[in-house]
């Protein structure tokens, strides 16, 4: 029962990453190297975040929502965004030409534009994204899964964690898309710029929003996971729309 | 192209070896994160001359069930949780006598029987109901051979919640097995091993009497003996407050009183007093037998008489003196008259019971019989009117602190002390109270209470007490405080009885989901991933690509053809 359950939860948590990698054109272009590099960048940002958290935060005894602590955590969360920016701009797939590098974007390409065989544009961001999200998932969730899901006792926690991992994947895809829109696209329609930045802001501060919900309002874990799933789908949809809106002028 | 394929193959190889390592690690499943952990106490496991009795297994790993199972259900992989309050003894009798296969039994005792709860007066009514059930249950379990683990546990909130859940599940008619989920009870413990050479320790204390100058003869001796070990269905719970904790405490109090008298040469009597705390009581008074054999002839002959104490703590208005010499014997008459006179003054009756010894029968029902077999006059003072059977009235599950009635116990101590003192100082028949209340020689209730409390929290089954057990050391120290000379005698318990260890364990209760749940989940996840895969392929590469994924083999054939 135990190993089976661990296997199930592992599939739920890490399966979508593998599916994402194999379903999109990544696998044909040997982008594993870029994914690994992105994972390493994620590791670097995680370490930097750890150091900052340890230095600036104090450990709270109670489980209450402390606005200042959460604000600090959100600020440190922006280091995440900085890391993503660094990865997007610095790490490129070698085979893409100079001009394609700046057109590489995130998930927004789920549109017929991809059918126009502009796949190479997206290789960088896709592969990098896959590496980033996978590293995030593994570092955060593998250890608890290993220790907890193998025991005889059955709880719903690990399945909920897997769903949370899926939501996080979608969220980071949207973040990458919005990030690419912000920094790599040179010609953006003026009206959409504030919306782009607003969405990017929301997605970036998602961790603090969820911890506020959990501690400040006292929501139960299933409710929080449901909320995360819902917002991730909404965000993905919005970024898709934004992406296609920005695509139209250039297409 | 070839380079890439080679690199891919290398990568795959390393991945396979990592997977293999992962599977090896995964094979060791941890069991330490249970929802509930409870202390449980195992039924005793012993052999008498090779015939096995008690529960023969210790480790447990089965699903939990309750008494509400559907008749005819297969319980061979279920542990039945039985609260003693609702126990119908015929169910257990039937299961034991018909030797139905069972995964295990877990009896839930009411909280008031916990060792730490001394004397709870509020639940007396509850105790009465449970008392008879427990007595019968204990007798049944101790004399039966059960090829599955049997444990006792105390009720608490968590176990009650689990039991309610299990009852609800059983009521729907589905027994809990691997495919339907429920609760799993796990006790990870090694197989029980024989206790090699179980030791019994006899402690004796000697109070020297006053030898007049020019008196060459040995002073006569009076012996007071009590056995201190117990035997019960759950050896880790056998504290035997009445059988024979009361005897031990009475002996210690009498020793204390006489040591006060004997410390001053003016009040020292012309008798030696020998105090004996013997072990091996439930096993035909094996310890007493070995103790007496260790005496030399002169000492044995100098013993005037011996009084053995057996369960004097919970009687109402009558005590009994049991003898093996016929009541017409002069010595017996003297002893009995002495006791009756004191008893009358204290306000109760003492009866005399005679039971002949059968030398060929190895069964020794009373401690004085061991003395009588060596031709020493002896009698047993007890509240029991009939001789107990083998392994009966030896301090079982029921015999806890609140079973002892302090007022009647203090009267027994007064009876013993006063009768002995009148014999020693020659005041038979005279109305002089040596240990009067409110005098400096009164029986001390707080002394009695503290020793009774200690005894009620110490399980004392002889094979599980080592030579240097702290309790034995405490008894030795206490006797040494009151007597002149203390000798400890270590012996090995007779070969007729063999005991097995593992008397206490921790029970882990897990809530498990069924295998069907896991399979269903796998199915759901598989279809989710497939849907995700096709969704992504369709949107990134188009529907044609998805279809071409399935049509690749035929197209290759076409190519080669």
Automatic annotation (TrEMBL), chain A:
The keyword Membrane applies. It comes from the Eukaryota. Keywords: Membrane, Transmembrane. This is Transmembrane protein 147. It comes from Citrus sinensis.
Automatic annotation (TrEMBL), chain B:
It comes from the Eukaryota. GO terms for biological process: regulation of signal transduction. One of its GO terms (cellular component) is endoplasmic reticulum membrane. Pfam families: Nicastrin. Residues 1-34 form the signal peptide. Its main location: endoplasmic reticulum. It is a single-pass membrane protein. The chain crosses the membrane at residues 519-543. It is found in: Endoplasmic reticulum membrane. Keywords: Endoplasmic reticulum, Glycoprotein, Membrane, Signal, Transmembrane, Transmembrane helix. Belongs to the nicastrin family. This is Nicalin. The lineage of its organism: Eukaryota, Viridiplantae, Streptophyta, Embryophyta, Tracheophyta.
């Amino acid at each position: 029962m135990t190993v089976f359950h661990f296997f199930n939860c592992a599939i739920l948590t890490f399966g979508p990453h593998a599916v994402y990698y194999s379903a999109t054109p990544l696998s044909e272009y040997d982008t594993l190297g870029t994914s690994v590099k992105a994972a390493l960048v994620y590791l670097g940002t995680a370490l930097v975040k750890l150091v900052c958290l340890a230095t600036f935060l104090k450990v709270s005894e109670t489980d209450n929502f402390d606005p200042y602590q959460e604000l600090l955590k959100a600020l440190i969360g922006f280091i995440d965004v900085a890391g993503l920016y660094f990865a997007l701009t610095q790490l490129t797939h070698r085979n893409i030409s100079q001009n394609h590098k700046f057109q590489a974007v995130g998930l927004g390409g789920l549109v017929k534009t991809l059918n126009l065989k502009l796949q190479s544009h997206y290789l960088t961001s896709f592969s990098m994204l896959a590496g980033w999200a996978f590293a995030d998932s593994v570092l955060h969730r593998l250890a608890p899964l290993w220790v907890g899901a193998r025991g005889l006792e059955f709880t719903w926690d690990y399945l909920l964690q897997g769903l949370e991992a899926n939501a996080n994947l979608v969220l980071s895809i949207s973040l990458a898309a919005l990030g690419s829109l912000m920094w790599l696209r040179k010609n953006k329609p003026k009206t959409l710029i504030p919306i782009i930045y607003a969405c990017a802001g929301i997605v970036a501060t998602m961790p603090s929003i969820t911890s506020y919900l959990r501690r400040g309002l006292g929501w139960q874990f299933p409710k929080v996971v449901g909320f995360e799933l819902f917002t991730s789908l909404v965000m993905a949809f919005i970024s898709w729309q934004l992406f296609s809106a920005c695509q139209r002028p250039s297409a | 192209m070839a380079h890439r394929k080679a690199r891919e193959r290398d990568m795959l190889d390393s991945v396979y070896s990592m997977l293999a390592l992962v599977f090896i690690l995964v094979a060791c499943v941890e069991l330490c994160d249970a929802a509930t952990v409870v202390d449980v106490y195992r039924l005793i496991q012993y052999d008498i001359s090779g015939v096995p009795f008690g529960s023969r297994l210790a480790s447990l790993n089965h699903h939990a069930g309750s008494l509400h199972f559907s008749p005819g259900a297969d319980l061979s992989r279920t542990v039945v949780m039985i609260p003693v309050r609702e126990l119908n003894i015929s169910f257990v009798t039937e299961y034991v006598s018909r030797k139905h296969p069972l995964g295990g039994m877990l009896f839930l005792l009411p909280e008031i029987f916990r060792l730490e709860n001394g004397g709870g007066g509020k639940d007396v009514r509850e105790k009465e109901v449970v008392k008879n059930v427990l007595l019968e249950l204990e007798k049944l379990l101790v004399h039966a051979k059960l090829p599955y683990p049997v444990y006792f546990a105390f009720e608490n909130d968590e176990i009650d919640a689990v039991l309610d859940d299990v009852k609800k599940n059983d009521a729907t008619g589905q027994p809990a097995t691997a495919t339907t989920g429920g609760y799993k009870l796990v006790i990870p413990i090694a197989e029980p091993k024989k206790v090699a050479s179980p030791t019994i320790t006899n402690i004796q204390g000697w109070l020297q009497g006053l030898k007049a100058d020019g008196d060459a003869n040995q002073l006569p001796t009076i012996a007071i003996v009590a056995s201190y070990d117990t035997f019960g269905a759950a050896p880790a719970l056998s504290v035997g407050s009445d059988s024979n904790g009361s005897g031990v405490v009475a002996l210690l109090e009498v020793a204390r009183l006489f040591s006060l008298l004997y410390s001053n040469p003016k009040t020292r009597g012309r008798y030696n007093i020998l105090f004996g705390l013997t072990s091996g009581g439930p096993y035909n008074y094996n310890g007493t037998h070995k103790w007496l054999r260790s005496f030399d002839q002169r000492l044995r002959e100098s013993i005037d008489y011996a009084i053995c104490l057996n369960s004097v703590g919970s009687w109402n208005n009558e005590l009994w003196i049991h003898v093996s010499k016929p009541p017409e014997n002069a010595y017996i008459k003297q002893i009995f008259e002495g006791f009756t006179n004191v008893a009358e003054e204290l306000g109760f009756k003492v009866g005399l019971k005679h039971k002949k010894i059968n030398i060929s029968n190895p069964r020794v029902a009373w401690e004085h019989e061991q003395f009588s077999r060596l031709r020493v006059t002896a009698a047993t003072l007890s509240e029991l009117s009939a001789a107990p059977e083998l392994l009966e009235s030896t301090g079982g599950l029921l015999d806890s602190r609140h079973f002892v009635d302090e007022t009647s116990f203090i009267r027994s101590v007064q009876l013993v002390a006063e009768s002995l003192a009148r014999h020693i100082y020659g005041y038979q028949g005279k109305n002089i109270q040596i240990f009067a209340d409110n005098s400096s020689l009164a029986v001390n209730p707080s002394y009695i209470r503290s020793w009774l409390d200690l005894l009620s929290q110490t399980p004392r089954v002889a094979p599980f007490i080592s030579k240097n057990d702290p309790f034995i050391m405490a008894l030795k120290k206490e006797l040494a405080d009151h007597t002149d000379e203390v000798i400890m005698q270590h012996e090995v318990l007779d070969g007729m009885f063999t005991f097995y260890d593992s008397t206490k364990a921790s029970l882990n209760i897990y809530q498990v989901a069924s295998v069907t749940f896991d399979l269903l989940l796998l199915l759901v996840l598989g279809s989710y991933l497939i849907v995700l895969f096709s969704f992504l392929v369709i949107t990134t590469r188009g529907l044609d690509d998805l279809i071409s994924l399935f049509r690749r083999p035929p197209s290759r054939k076409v190519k080669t053809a």
